# Entry
Amino acid sequence: MGALSDIRIVDFGHYVAGPLTGMLLADQGANVIKVDPPGGPTFNSPANATWNRGKQSINLDLKSAADLDIAKRLIAQADVVIENFRPGVMDRLGLGAIAMTKVNPKLIYSAMPGFSNLDSRSNLQGWEGIIMAATDVFRPIADYRDMIQMLHRDLTTRVGEPVFTSEMIASAYAALISSLAITTAIFERNTSGIGQAVEVPLYDAMLQAVGVLAMIRPPFRAITKPIFSGFDHQYQCLDGRWVHIVATVPRHAEAFLNAVNRRDLIDKGLAKRGLATKTELNALLIQTLTDVFKTRTALAWEDLFVELDIPGARCLSSQEWLDHPQATESDLVVSIEDPVLGTSRQPGLQVKLLATPGEITSPAPTPNQHREKILTELLALEQRDAVDRKQVDYQDNVDFPLAGIKVLDLCIILAGPTCGRSLAELGADVIKIDDPGRGGVLYHHDINRGKRSILIDLKTPAGLEVFWQLVDDADVIVQNYRSGVVEQLGIDYDSIKARKPNVIYVSLNAFGDQGPWEYQPGYEEVVQALTGMQTRFGGKDKPILWPYGVINDYGTGFAGAFGVVLALIVKASTGKGQHVTSALARTAGTLQSAHLMDYAGKIWDEPTGPYARGASGFQRLYECADGWLYLGASETSNIPEIVGQNDGDALEPSIERWCLARNLEDAVLELTTGKSAAYKLTWIEDFSSDKSNQDRGLFVTRAHAGIGELRTTGPGSWFSRSKIHIGTTASIAGSDAGAILEEVSRWDLDELVASNAIVLP
# Structure
């Protein structure tokens, strides 16, 4: 039985964000009623077989008084409403948050518009491509090396033409963050008895994927030092295929160079850290490895990576990933008998809970399949509900929803710390525990804000005892080491559960908790290569890392926080903790859910590669006289009339000629109508410095004692009642040790420092 088995959801979602959110919640046991217009889902895509799995279906004509009344009655008996219309649409139907929370004060109302109701662009058609144009996703990228340099070069530099991606990342991020926000509101409601409105605009959600690239101090200069080298790179192999290796750790680099009989490169210092800062040596390494990798096939190299236990993989297509042993021998990909598509392979669950495991209870329904059943159940609920509802102002403020929850964050790099940061934003007290021997903490200032910091050497007896005292006082422990590492340290789930039975323990890794690659080391780049993301973006001839190169990391962080809150809901009613798991490869499935599926007769024809411009003439990039724009339009729009398309002319060439004859400003204005929108490609420095974005808290500038003025992204979700805690800037690593120890330990700080158990900054 899933964590949300007693939750009833009415899903008015269309296209991607809404249905995907409903799917994530249905996978965790929620009873989700999918409401579609009379003709069935608005977006006629095979991916509906994924997004609508586990749901019941009813078709309602909201322009009909009778069907509108049914919709209101369904909401009156629901725990959660999901909708992703433009702001004001549901209000005009009488189904908006203010109206329905008065009818049902316990209701959690989740909205996912393209742009917030507080955004001046709220009336704009929030097509996926419009959001990505507004957030620099289509940025021109010459190759992988150009992309990775974004972290430490002038952000105003652009090379080449924009690159379209068919993957709907903004919608997927909105779904992940909305799932976290909805379950948080449920958790809070279980105490207060009152629901609230939750908003996660696609634009706001997409900024969460920008992450560290927007972390700057004026003038626009990234604070992250270059970390990439020829050992974090793609190489073409003997068979023309590509691999991505990440051997930036010296022991990995040395193991690889020894295996290919290039000890001479070790002697020259090419396996050392910091190589990326030594331009000539790094260039020599890339040149040498380019020749080395052409001596074996891509599969042979992948087998060697596994044998040597170093991060690396082939750059596969999505279709190939579905047949990879890690996908076929784990539950990262599942097989479902769909009533329309037949046997369908699609992504598995995003989050797994040991004690209350979610499941895919049924395939996606056919349109209106459960109408009679839904109406019968609705009548029974209405007859049973004889209690007068108290009228409550849903705008009343309350405390932080996770106030009183203590979290130990043992994580490294990005995914795990993002999980901890998300919990801190919701009010949890998060203690960041770092290993003093690891050196500088990557992305520290982005993902550790709002936390307290302590440096503990868990390999010392005293350090380990301090950790156990912290465990005694904690509710949640989060770690993202690869499988096997925490077992070696003796701080795995079973060990901690033996001491604290009700603990919630979260494990995040690259490839999941089962399958032949469970224990394989992995990073963002490797997961993108293996699951088809690099190929989809760059094409089979030259795979390219995504423009926001850590989208699986950040996404897995939000998924981990989602799992924590699910477990907290269960613990509140049962008193029991449990083990929560997720992985970057699971997130890659969610982010690619629009296309990552297979069935009989499937044609893999989505746009890929650097020369793709869009999915159709109505949804694509166009060049104007002074730059590029994205056009998002309904096929029933008057775009053909605007551009003067003549009978017999193809649409795309007509729009191309029309745009090239105009400047951006004029073209955007003329192409934006009731059923269409156009948006110029916007760069990071433009939207991160935009005053309206800063006023809304999407970007936060604060003083920092160590580096001066610092700008980071703000939260991606907004609550009508609950507070959200942006958090102070990340403290200097280890600076909170004294205060933390005073709360839980009788140890003398000076003694701990002298024994090297605790390290002070």
Summary: The radius of gyration is 26 Å.
